[in-house]
Design goal:
single chain, mainly beta, Porin, 18-stranded antiparallel barrel, four-stranded mixed β-sheet, about 10% helix
Length: about 575
């Protein structure tokens, strides 16, 4: 059916946000040695908990001799100590940067972060100015407490032994749904009146404090963060007819130990508590579903909560290898808390240039969740095991801009016969020498469903995996079908017309792996046909400056016969419009 006119509220709000935002040209990014059109610069708080895929060094005033320059970079990399692999921890980066700044032959240094690709991976760049014949400058006082200047906020205090700073992360958004649930909200247990157009506003505010301290001159550091989030929804959304609701609750609350001997090729980091957590490409363990938003917590679309209820994460890095052991319990809604616990190990290797490989072993030692069967019985989720290898090859076959990637997870259960698989194959190409850096990618992905005619359970369990423009397959489709029982073709085209601005269009073609869909939405327990439909999502992601991130998107889910012939009433294109703004201080 033809699409109706896009929601005027969404377009007007998006245009206002773009026109009101300052240009990145007003920041120091114009002096950035990296290609700002190929990489989007992000603040440390935005990168917190994301996978670190690359770390490299840039020297502003390198020695005249090329070999001496390389030796200097290698020495700086050793002194910095931060390495790819594992998740980014901003206080670890702060401690590493402070050490580099204290080196007698370094005049100044800073760290910049870049989001690479759609999966939330982060590149860390150390930028250094070497000291010449001039004397080393004395570091100025830093922090609002140390200087008495409020302009130093959110930094409270900083010296050679540590730092303390405030966490201030407000967010807000406007959202529109038209013909929610394909025009059949009653079939999904929602108010039938939602079949029209719904518009609502959401807000979030995170306030907290965090810091890191070095124990004397030792390589031992203690760090931690505590924060509180208020969130709310103004107006009815697709899950609630309540006009407004909100709540406040603890978000981050963790402490950690860092052992980072200077010039050593190894480091160890242990964190314990409530925190954001993800693993590799976010296929099975991701930060988005680590904390539930919506329900009484409100802010379903804005998602201001990301912290798991509990994470114990131990990361040991040596050279290009990282070894990780973890335990995590997701922060689910109290009304539907399955008390599921995840534990596992992850081994990763990266050369920060062409090769990125990982192998994860994940288990569920405890859960109240269960998988329903056609005969009315249920299989316990507890006892699930998963093995998950992944390999990414950049500059494939020596071709700049070409990358290939493959990931696979096989799941079984120690208590009964289970054999489920999820996998994806990517091919991507970036026109690196073309203005606006156009890029294309294609992925074919399969997450298996259960064939009830066999004695083995085969439906894939996505655990807490899924991130926008990656393993969250379809911004609207995910509301009908999580990453289970799907075969998906995904095409994406993107442009970067200015530093920090990414424009993309994602197109999905969805097919069911099996017609049996028990364990999904009750209204879709059995599909009438395997072709479920298509979704197209144009998206704007803009890191306006170091403090403001804007995301705007429109998504159109066109039902295929698998949805159209299964639902009881006439189906329509589900239109969604989102504008989200996130500030970081």
């Amino acid at each position: 059916m033809p699409l109706r006119r896009p929601a005027p509220l969404f377009l007007a709000a998006l245009a206002a946000a773009i026109l009101a935002a300052p240009s990145p040209a007003q920041t120091t990014e114009s002096a950035d040695p990296n290609d700002a059109y190929a990489r989007n610069r992000i603040p440390a708080s935005f990168a917190q908990g994301s996978p670190t895929s690359r770390v490299y060094v840039h020297v502003w005033n390198p020695p005249a001799d090329a070999q001496e320059t390389e030796r200097t970079k290698e020495r700086l990399a050793r002194e910095f100590g931060l390495r790819p692999g594992g998740s980014f921890e901003q206080f670890h980066a702060d401690a590493a940067l402070a050490h580099v700044k204290r080196l007698p032959w370094v005049k100044e240094a800073e760290v910049r972060l870049y989001a690479i690709g759609a999966g939330g991976e982060v590149t860390v760049v150390l930028l250094v100015t070497l000291l010449g014949a001039e004397p080393k400058p004395v570091p100025p006082p830093a922090g609002a407490i140390g200087t008495g200047q409020l302009g130093q906020l959110p930094l409270l205090w900083k010296d050679d032994q540590g730092m303390v700073k405030l966490i201030v992360n407000p967010s807000a958004g406007a959202y529109v749904d038209r013909d929610a649930f394909l025009g059949n909200p009653g079939a999904f247990g929602s108010d039938p009146a939602m079949a029209g157009t719904l518009t609502h506003l959401e807000y979030g505010m995170e306030l907290g404090i965090g810091g890191i301290f070095q124990l004397g001159d030792s390589p031992f550091f203690l760090f931690g963060t505590g924060s509180y989030v208020w969130s709310g929804t103004l107006g009815a959304d697709i899950y609630s007819t309540t006009s407004s609701r909100g709540i406040g609750a603890w978000e981050d609350g963790y402490g950690g130990l860092l052992i980072a001997p200077h010039t050593s090729s190894s480091s160890f980091r242990l964190t314990v508590g409530r925190q954001k957590f993800s693993l590799n490409r976010n296929f099975q363990i991701g930060h988005v579903l680590g904390a539930a938003n919506g329900g009484d917590r409100a802010a379903t679309d804005l998602s201001p909560r990301n912290a798991y209820d509990l994470v114990v994460d131990a990361l040991y890095q040596v050279g290009r290898l990282s070894f990780q052991a973890f335990f995590a319990r997701a922060n689910e809604l109290p009304s539907s808390d399955s008390r599921t616990e995840y534990a596992g190990v992850n081994v990763a290797y990266t050369d920060s240039r062409t090769l990125d490989a990982s192998l994860s072993l994940i288990g569920i030692p405890h859960s109240k969740g269960a998988y329903p069967l056609p005969d009315g019985s249920r299989l316990a989720r507890e006892g699930l095991r998963s093995v998950n290898p992944r390999l990414k090859w950049s500059r494939a076959f020596g071709v700049p801009g070409l990358w290939l990637e493959g990931e696979w997870a096989h799941q079984w259960n120690t208590n009964y016969s289970m054999s489920a698989d999820g996998w994806g194959l990517w091919a991507g190409y970036t026109f690196e020498k073309t203005p606006w850096k156009p890029a294309l990618l294609y992925r074919y992905a399969v997450v298996t469903g259960d064939d009830p005619s066999t004695s083995t359970y085969e439906r894939f369990d996505n655990l807490t995996g899924g991130v926008q423009r990656d393993w969250a397959q379809g911004m609207t489709m995910i509301k009908l079908s999580t990453n289970r029982n799907l075969r998906t073709h995904r095409f994406e085209a993107s442009l970067r017309p200015k530093g920090g601005l990414d424009l993309s269009v994602d197109c999905y073609d969805f097919w069911a792996d099996t017609l049996n869909n028990l364990g999904g939405q009750p209204a879709l327990a059995t599909y009438a046909s395997s072709h479920l439909g298509q979704e197209i999502t144009p998206t704007l992601q803009w890191m306006v400056n170091a403090n403001l991130f804007v995301q705007g998107l429109a998504s159109y889910l066109v039902p295929g016969p698998g949805l159209r012939d299964t639902l009881p009433g006439p189906t329509h294109v589900w239109q969604t419009y989102k504008l989200s703004l996130y500030w970081f201080y």
